[in-house]
Write a structure and sequence with these properties.
Strand 15 and strand 16 form a beta hairpin. A ten-stranded antiparallel beta sheet has the order 1-3-4-5-8-17-10-11-12-13, with no helix packed on it. Strands 2, 6, 7, 9, 14, 15, 16 and 18 form an eight-stranded antiparallel beta sheet that branches. The chain is mainly beta.
């Protein structure tokens, strides 16, 4: 007889500092300190702390990532091995669609390159949206699953240590940030994002995976204004010990900022 023990790590908001300073439009909050169902160190489910019900579980034909306690400033993180670890779900409840305004934050450490990170939507040109890194160099990247039209930031994510990566789409303009610094801007009026799937730890079609550690993912179905953006950046930086929220320059790679994806 085999006995499987499943443990859910669940703490109150005050205990794990999950009280976000902004809640309007919140459609996803994943916090590695809270509501993580495990079997030993293996993560079976990462539950959404928002009211949208976007809980993530192990994707079929993939394996469970690992919960690492005290990974960053005393806080936990979920570690993906870059081989076959992936979490996801069918449906991205209440997420922005088409070219609608949106905002996403991720506290992340990329340990490998490879077309993957956090994404939602469908595997069709402009139907996907997410915070990722590129396959060739591991540059920070906002993926839309389009061959030849996607623009990388030119800033290394892989090997850069823990960062706060974020993106805001407002009035058809996409602005990509790392630790509060603008690293790329492009027109986003052609986005056709769907709500089909959510993926974390792998490319959306699951062809490739990324070795990465994730402490927090936060998504809104609206564009945060500058005051709100600064407030959230400062909050996350303070919780995870990533500085005071003051923007500092990042090392830029010498590669071209135009990136061609293979889908």
């Amino acid at each position: 007889t085999t006995t499987t023990t499943t443990t859910t790590t669940s703490t109150t908001a005050n205990e794990h500092e999950s009280n976000l300073p902004i809640s309007s439009g919140l459609v996803l909050e994943l916090d590695a300190d809270a509501m993580v169902a495990t079997d030993g160190p293996s993560v079976l489910e990462w539950q959404d702390l928002s009211s949208s019900g976007n809980d993530l579980s192990v994707v079929v034909h993939n394996t469970a990532p690992t919960l690492v306690t005290k990974a960053l400033n005393g806080h936990a993180a979920i570690s993906f091995d870059g081989t076959n670890n992936a979490l996801g779900r069918n449906g991205a409840n209440k997420f922005a669609t088409g070219a609608q305004d949106r905002s996403i934050w991720m506290v992340v450490k990329y340990n490998s390159a490879g077309w993957g990170g956090f994404s939602y939507g469908s595997t069709g040109c402009l139907q996907l949206f997410g915070l990722t890194v590129t396959a060739a160099k591991g540059n920070l990247f906002v993926d839309d699953y389009c061959t030849g039209v996607t623009t990388g930031s030119g800033y290394l994510g892989t090997g850069a240590g823990w960062i706060i990566q974020s993106v805001i789409v407002k009035n058809g303009v996409l602005t990509h940030y790392s630790d509060g610094q603008v690293i790329s801007v492009r027109d986003a009026s052609d986005l056709a994002t769907t709500q089909e799937y959510i993926r974390l730890g792998a490319e959306h079609s699951l062809y490739t995976h990324v070795a990465m550690d994730v402490a927090r993912v936060v998504a809104f179905n609206r564009a945060l204004d500058e005051s709100e953006r600064f407030q959230l950046e400062k909050y996350l930086a303070g919780v995870y010990g990533l500085g005071s929220g003051v923007v500092t320059p990042l090392p830029r790679t010498t590669s071209s900022t135009t990136t061609t994806t293979t889908t």
